[in-house]
Design goal:
The chain is α/β, with parallel strands linked by helices. It has eight helices and six strands.
Amino acid sequence: MFLYDTFFSNCDKTVAQILLNADDIEQEEKKENLTNTFNALLEMGIIPVVNENDSVSYTEIESAGRLFGDNDMLCAIVAVLCKASKLVIFSDIDGLHDNDPRRYPNAKRIECIGNINEQVYATAKGAGSRRGTGGMKTRLQAAHLATAREIDTIITNGSHPDAPYDIANGLHVGTFFAGKRHT
């Protein structure tokens, strides 16, 4: 948190840490309080820095059926709670490819996905990098959750410092997943 606070204070922004566990999402009263907290922080221009509360959610860490499991699903849940219009998920590669770009240099990045189905999931093979827990599969699961709630989602490479600016300027970066518009 010290690093986030230092970085954002250099930009005249204030941050607040929010730690979540499954109970915060599953129990309606806690979920409503959490949503109100996000809304209040955002209205005041405070940037929430969210993470799973590992000190009280150790059973989720050890469980196969854990709610969050990784930061990809956590950020999608937060985007839904905040009624975000867009979710950006940073990865260690440039987006979803037709094959693993680390193993196949000719793999092509897929620019846009309209519907996340079994064929799309099949392109996300393996567990990803040594640092991650689920690789592209968990990013797709998070994108699926967000797009089902009308949230446009982008998966892109987090090591490119211009990526957030390019996205804000409407440039095509990574893989875009269109949020489902319900009529």
